[in-house]
Specification:
2 copies of one chain form a homodimer. Chain A is mostly helical and 225 residues long. In chain A, helix 1 crosses helix 2, helix 5 runs antiparallel to helix 8 and helix 9 runs antiparallel to helix 10. Chain A has 10 helices and no strands. The first copy, chain A, binds a DNA duplex (30 and 30 nucleotides) through helix 3.
Amino acid sequence: MDFQVIFKVNEKIYLRDPESSELGKHIIKSAIDLIYELGFEHFTFKKLALEIKTTEATIYRYFENKHRLLLYILNWYWSYLAYLVMFQLQNVSDTKAKLKTIVHLLTHELPDSGGRLDYNKNYLNKIVIAESSKVYLVKEVREINKNEVFKPYKDLCANIADVITAYNPDYQYPKSLSSTLIETAHHQQFFSNFLPRLTDVGTVENKEFTALFMDDMLFKILDKS
Amino acid sequence: MDFQVIFKVNEKIYLRDPESSELGKHIIKSAIDLIYELGFEHFTFKKLALEIKTTEATIYRYFENKHRLLLYILNWYWSYLAYLVMFQLQNVSDTKAKLKTIVHLLTHELPDSGGRLDYNKNYLNKIVIAESSKVYLVKEVREINKNEVFKPYKDLCANIADVITAYNPDYQYPKSLSSTLIETAHHQQFFSNFLPRLTDVGTVENKEFTALFMDDMLFKILDKS
DNA sequence: TATTTACAATAGTATTACTACTATTAAAAA
DNA sequence: TTTTTAATAGTAGTAATACTATTGTAAATA
């Protein structure tokens, strides 16, 4: 049986649904490539328009600005990750194994699982690591948050928190630990790659190192009390 | 006895030492106010020039761009924090008490301690929380890092790692834990303020909550093995 | 006194972010 | 079938931002 998994991204994020046209899909796909290549600061709608042979104004009909476009990509990512967590934890009864699966998902590229996925997963992974915090570390965060555009992140965090609580019902800070795991997955990977003195990365590969560090941390915290 | 503590910021960061003139000091002081007020994205040299009644070009003689100016502020902050850690741990023999002092320093505003400090510490604290990751989460991180401009951050991290190792010599990841503590202090404060569902903050105040969460986490990790 | 030197201001340019308006096309209505 | 309209993308701009080449001026030095 062939099937697709489709995520409806909150429509407050875009002006025009990029999933509704070929051009729209092309914008997202190329945006991922270009944000990876240039970094978010150097990424502009002009450059993207040039890349996909359209005009700046056309892209502005889909997204108010590049911040919203990044937010769209991350909403898609968070939704997909939450789906994967749900999917991969099906039929796993051991809560310890569940947590290990979560740490692995947080520290590795998205696997292909059923749904078609034509985005470059390696690039997407790098974008999440290096750029994701820029969508909320802005002056307008309160205003932006009113439109529920961070809901997929909060849901992901809540799902992980539930598994934490299932593993240890006495632990006091499941949500904070959950968001810390997500953020730590990002910065430990970034640091071990670019600023390794901020980590204890050795000969082992970055993603593997981050998973080891996080596993150790997680179970010491939860097995203690 | 009156005394001052002065930090020499790496001279690769600036074109002209802002400490060398009244105008330079004025630039830093007002930059802190303005970055706090507008957020880093909306902060420009034009607006800063208008604020301190000089011209854009003049500010460009001190700093190559606004990224470098932010880096300067953070270098100063990291150096001062490392100094405070060193200073406050003097004559404390109990390593547990040392770690608690560190967590408190990471989660609270800079105290006045000896040295004159005419920057707005509340604003500086907010800037560190919301903007600090933007100095390394850039495409040019490798290039920038070559000039040792992240040294104060790495030193701070190493100092904290030493205390961790003193407390528990068997713990495998002192530096990663140290950088995780620093980053967690920032995003848990940010989240509990703006996106509280990502945390377990309750009635207690944000800084206090973050300190409680981090204390709990730190000692569970280190007392375990 | 003449001459460097240090510094800041003037006056620009290129790029970025964004928008008002126009042209095209395809579907719906007459 | 023809006309109308609605949806879409493109043209052609403006304002703000990021940055620089050059000029002016005042203090330090010869």
